[in-house]
Here is the input.
Amino acid sequence: MRVIAKLDVKPPHVVKPVHFEGLRKVGAPSDLAGRYYEQGADEIFYMDIVASLYQRQILLDEVAEAARTLLVPFAVGGGVRTIDDFSRLFHHGADKVVINTGAVATPHIIDAAARVFGGQSVVLNIEAKQLSAGKWTCYTDCGRIPSGLDVLEWVREAEGRGAGEILLQSVDADGRRRGFDLELVRSVVDAVRIPVVAASGAGTLDHILEVAQQAAPSGIAVASMLHYGQTDIGQIKQHLKDNGVEVAL
Here is the structure.
């Protein structure tokens, strides 16, 4: 089980939204990335949450600064629309590129990126909102615009196109710190063979343990609990280990 620190960035600050709205500044991306790396994070996810919404390119200098001292995988997303965007991010320190809005608009970019860079470097970001029991739709542009795509159908299609990983976020659970949408995580994990990182909802160590034990994603992304000093990466890993979940310490 990978424990991942997720940085939601509205340059030049890491922010923490609730339901992808109501942003609160919590620190500088380079400072927080370095802190969580030192704590033992297995990966860092850097998400420019307004690049697509503002229809601008991700700010590459900010990405490079955050990546500068990291020796763990660094995944970056926000405003990615072309193969050149992938290339620029890799040249500025990203190990993986996360795409959502651009892939919904132009699905074949997944095929092209997987062919050029390898599927392991292509992460599909899902911003899911529940429609009814067992049914979710995909949103784009920082959880604001419904795409009409069914989550389970879209993750299967993306896997078939060559995506190597899923970042699964819940618009409903985001920032509330009341636990993960376990049914959503289980459904996506069961729908694909590629790794799934569960995000959105961690408020206690037991919430993290619960999603690990009951939904079995390959990674868990944590934001608020880390940003507000409620816990650290080491405590999360120890809690998982103490309860029978295998982690890298």
